[in-house]
């Protein structure tokens, strides 16, 4: 049975009815993405008003908040650009309409698209930047930022697709509240699940094409939406977003949902085959087993990841070796409070160990040896440490290993007991976990927490990042610039760093040794001359770094690094929380002073 489209605007008919996801994407949804007034496919009876739900319909309502569309270079054709994220997922969900016939399931799909845009390419004011192969987005913007985006909402049930009235976006949090309210009013059901797709920043919150929202704002939006429809909690909350498998996130959402799905790592999007979580596979499972419980749905979503539904090593085909979810976990909210208590107990025992230098070094070693989770979403400016989200399970095991080896004194056994209790608490809280073997994720536990290690607390390392003299030292030793053909690139970079020194410290600062080396590089016409000029640059940069002028530059960079680190720590550690884990983090932060 082909899907039937209705609209609150009763649009005119078009020439052809698409019956595949590709057809929907090309003929109908692409038109909506352009911000134009679009007509649904023809060949069906059209009506206005609400959908007439058939009985039974009240098992599950699956609400999808699709906030972020990204554009990628095609892996198969370097000249082709492909979409991923919200745009594709919305089209895929529309294509499932025919499968909902006589099923007690309703899909409510909400997507933001630019208005007054004649191009079908999405406009994203919060566009992500790719740094070190990972997506980084700003989460500092106001949650009300929407960039003139319009919210399209579709109710899909019993083979019909009804597009509700298009409205302006009011920001990430407000739009999420509106979706929950719409889902409850349009499709009341036994169970309600919310799928939150977009950019995740772990403790920093979430963002999308319509702005950003803190964890507090997300929590408030969900609770307000639930209150509007007479519910206390979501049955399931699925973050189809990066980095949300984090202890702070899970604690913040503990009262919003009975079951939570999230990844501690990056959720990758690479085009048609890899795009975070596979919403089609998830919905098909619910359609096949509509009587499944919320716990069963959580287990099913993680099982699908393990089976390769999101790409990865279990997926069929060479083009699916990369995973949309390198990690994915199912958290049982009823166990979150117990886990948080075990985290507090560990924090108290570690704060005691930090009072001795051997204890401090052993704890820092345990942190540094724990895998770093995704950096996606972390506010990353030059000289500011990355948000160090480490795997909790590995950290606890590292502490136990340090005690066993004798490198960490545990008088009274408090740390050992607390670490073992934490591992038990995490095991009880995480009902199921999938980690891709590629990358070693299968050995991790599916939960990250903020733990500043030596790289984070090393102010000199932060200062070196923003010190133009250190940049010049690095240019001299960069093997990628060793050949004469790289002369122009080196000169551009060298000129920029010298100009930075003069601009920030004044032209009276003697930079003659650096200018001399730059001239030698510029005048080089053979590889031997170029190599000699590189040697001169290395020697002169070293001497300048050790001179009074170089020390002045370094001193200023250290001051700035201190400011950046203090600001970053303040954003990661609650200034008001009094729990023992937060006290431990504050004690760690003090080591950067």
Put the structure in a nutshell:
With 593 residues, the chain is α/β, with parallel strands linked by helices.
What does this structure look like?
This protein has helices at 21-33, 86-94, 172-186, 215-228, 247-252, 279-288, 294-306, 336-353, 357-368, 392-405, 414-429, 454-457, 459-466, 468-477, 487-505, 512-523, 527-546, 548-572, 580-590; strands spanning 4-7, 60-66, 69-73, 81-85, 105-114, 129-131, 134-136, 149-157, 160-163, 167-168, 191-197, 199-200, 206-208, 211-213, 234-240, 257-262, 327-332, 389-391, 430-435, 448-450. Strand 12 and strand 13 (206-208) form a beta hairpin. Helices cover 42% and strands 17% of the residues. Mean pLDDT is 83; it is low at 7-22, 41-48, 117-145 and 376-381. It contains 19 helices and 20 strands.
């Amino acid at each position: 049975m082909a899907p039937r489209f209705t609209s609150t605007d009763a649009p005119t008919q078009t020439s052809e009815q698409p019956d595949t996801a590709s057809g929907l994407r090309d003929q109908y949804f692409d038109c909506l993405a352009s911000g134009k007034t679009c007509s649904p496919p023809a060949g069906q009876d059209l009506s206005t008003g609400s959908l007439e739900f058939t009985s039974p319909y009240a098992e599950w309502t699956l609400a999808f908040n699709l906030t972020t569309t990204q554009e990628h270079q095609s892996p198969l054709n370097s000249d082709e650009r492909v979409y991923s994220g919200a745009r594709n997922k919305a089209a895929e969900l529309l294509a499932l309409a025919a499968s909902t016939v006589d099923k007690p399931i309703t899909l409510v799909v909400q997507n933001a698209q630019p208005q007054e845009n004649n191009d079908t390419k999405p406009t994203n004011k919060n566009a992500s930047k790719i740094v070190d192969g990972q997506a980084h987005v700003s989460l500092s913007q106001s949650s009300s930022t929407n960039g003139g985006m319009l919210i399209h909402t579709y109710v899909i049930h019993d083979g019909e697709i009804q597009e509700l009235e298009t409205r302006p976006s009011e920001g990430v949090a407000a739009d999420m509240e509106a979706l929950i309210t719409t889902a409850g009013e349009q499709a009341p059901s036994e169970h309600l699940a919310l799928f939150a797709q977009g950019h995740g920043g772990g403790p920093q919150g979430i963002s999308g094409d319509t702005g950003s929202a803190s964890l507090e704002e997300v929590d408030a939006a969900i609770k307000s939406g639930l209150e509007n429809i007479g519910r206390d909690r979501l049955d399931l909350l699925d973050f189809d977003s990066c980095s949300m498998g984090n202890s702070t996130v899970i604690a913040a959402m503990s009262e919003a949902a009975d079951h939570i799905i999230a990844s501690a790592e990056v959720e990758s999007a690479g085009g048609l085959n890899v795009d975070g979580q596979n919403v089609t596979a998830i919905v098909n499972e619910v359609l096949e087993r509509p009587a499944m419980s919320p716990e069963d749905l959580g287990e099913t979503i993680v099982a699908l990841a393990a089976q390769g539904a999101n790409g990865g090593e279990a997926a069929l085909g060479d083009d699916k070796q990369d995973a949309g979810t390198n990690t994915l976990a199912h958290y049982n909210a009823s166990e979150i409070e117990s886990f948080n208590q075990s985290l507090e107990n560990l924090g108290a025992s570690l704060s005691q160990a930090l009072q001795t230098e051997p204890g401090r070094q052993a704890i820092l070693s345990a942190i540094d040896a724990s895998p770093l989770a995704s950096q996606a979403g972390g506010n990353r400016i030059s000289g500011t440490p990355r948000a160090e989200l480490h795997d909790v399970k590995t950290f606890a095991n590292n502490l136990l290993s340090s005690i066993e080896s004798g490198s960490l004194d545990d008088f009274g056994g408090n740390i050992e007991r607390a670490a073992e209790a934490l591992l038990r608490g995490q095991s009880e809280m995480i009902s199921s976990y999938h980690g891709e073997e590629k990358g070693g994720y299968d050995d991790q536990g599916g939960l990250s927490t903020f733990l500043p290690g030596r790289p984070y607390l090393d102010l000199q390392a932060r200062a070196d990042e923003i010190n133009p003299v250190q940049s010049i030292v690095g240019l001299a030793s960069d093997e990628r610039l060793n050949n004469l053909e790289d002369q122009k690139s080196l000169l551009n970079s060298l000129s920029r760093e010298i100009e930075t020194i003069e601009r920030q410290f004044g032209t009276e600062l003697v930079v003659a040794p650096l200018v001399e080396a730059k001239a030698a590089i510029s005048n080089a016409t053979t590889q031997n001359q170029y190599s000699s000029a590189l040697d001169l640059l290395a020697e002169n940069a070293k001497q300048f770094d050790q001179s009074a002028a170089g020390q002045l530059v370094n001193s200023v960079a250290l001051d700035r690094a201190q400011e950046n680190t203090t600001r970053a720590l303040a954003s990661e550690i609650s200034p008001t929380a009094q729990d023992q884990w937060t006290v431990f983090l504050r004690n760690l932060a003090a080591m950067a002073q």
